[in-house]
Amino acid sequence: MVSGVEPRWNPDEYSRTARFVSDLGADALALLAPAAGERILDLGCGDGVLSAKIDDLGAEVVAVDSSPEQVAAAHALGLDARVADAAKLRFDAEFDAVFSNATLHWVRDADAVIGGIRRALRPGGRFVAEFGGKGNIDVIRSALVAALDRRGVDGRAVDPWHFPDVADYTRRLETAGFSVKSAELFDRPTPLAGDIRDWLALFAQPFLAAVAEADRAAILDEVRDAVRPTLQRADGSWTADYVRLRIKALKDA
Ligand code: BEZ
């Protein structure tokens, strides 16, 4: 799904370190407002926890993700789960809605994703998504880039993330043939379940993969030290500097 190194998602590790991803998807799900009988594509379903909630509401869900391991976990929940690349969707006018939580920032070619979503929707169908927006994890991202730059590796070149603002994403959607109904960018400081090292080991895989294995532990320590004054609380807990872009758009007829 990403350009460059494809992260590996171990469902157990994901569940331990990143359960907040689906826990915090409730507002996006409320914006989707799935209705019984609708056919809904969950794009970037991860381990399927949110897809199962949509399914529980009586919708017919197709859950896709680029990670075979996550798709297997979603399948184990009884879902119609399939491996798919978000930038190469092959569905044709078959969904009432496309939903995506915490996925689209992993795809640099936003226009390819939007084009595939548009093709997948029936005329008038809705697209509801929440993902990292402009400024997302700025503190963490800058520390990662700096740690790689110090080793002579171009940190920006391996940075897999695309965090657009409202104007950028709205323009892309409108150009592709959507009418944007709502779009908001907001800070969502996110408490982490454990140490920031665990978050980095899971989510910053493309940065770590760009250096020799022997350097990775030192990079985790350096980044942890750099972000500690901003992201660690007095009680020792960590809060990541998330910024979300939440958007709802309708496919033009
Ligand atoms: C996010 O959900 O915003 C995110 C997660 C991991 C890496 C980058 C962004």
How would you describe this structure to a colleague?
- This protein is α/β, with parallel strands linked by helices and 253 residues long.
- It has a domain at 11-137 and 161-192 and 240-251: Vaccinia Virus protein VP39 (Rossmann fold), CATH 3.40.50.
- Helix content is 42%, strand content 23%.
- It contains 11 helices and 9 strands.
- The chain has helices spanning 11-23, 26-32, 49-56, 68-76, 110-120, 138-149, 155-158, 166-176, 196-203, 205-208, 213-231, and strands spanning 39-43, 60-65, 80-83, 95-101, 121-132, 178-187, 190-191, 239-240, 243-251.
- A 7-stranded mixed β-sheet has the order 3-2-1-4-5-9-6. Strands 7-8 form a two-stranded antiparallel ribbon.
- Helix 4 (68-76) links the parallel strand 2 and strand 3 (80-83).
- Helix 5 crosses helix 8 and helix 6 packs antiparallel against helix 11.
- The model has no long low-confidence stretch (mean pLDDT 95).
> What is the mean predicted local confidence, pLDDT?
95
**What is the CATH T-level topology of the domain at 11-137 and 161-192 and 240-251?**
Rossmann fold
Strand tally? 9
- Give the class-level CATH name of the domain at 11-137 and 161-192 and 240-251: Alpha Beta
**What string, H for helix and E for strand, traces the elements in order?**
HHEHEHEEHEHHHEEHHHEE
Q: How helical, in percent, are the residues?
A: 40-55%
Instruction: Please give the largest β-sheet.
Output: 7 strands, mixed
Taking pLDDT < 50 over at least 5 consecutive residues as the criterion, the unreliable ranges are: none
Radius of gyration: 18 Å
According to CATH, the homologous superfamily of the domain at 11-137 and 161-192 and 240-251 is: Vaccinia Virus protein VP39
Class by SSE composition: alpha/beta
Distance between the termini: 29 Å
| Annotation field: number of helices | 11
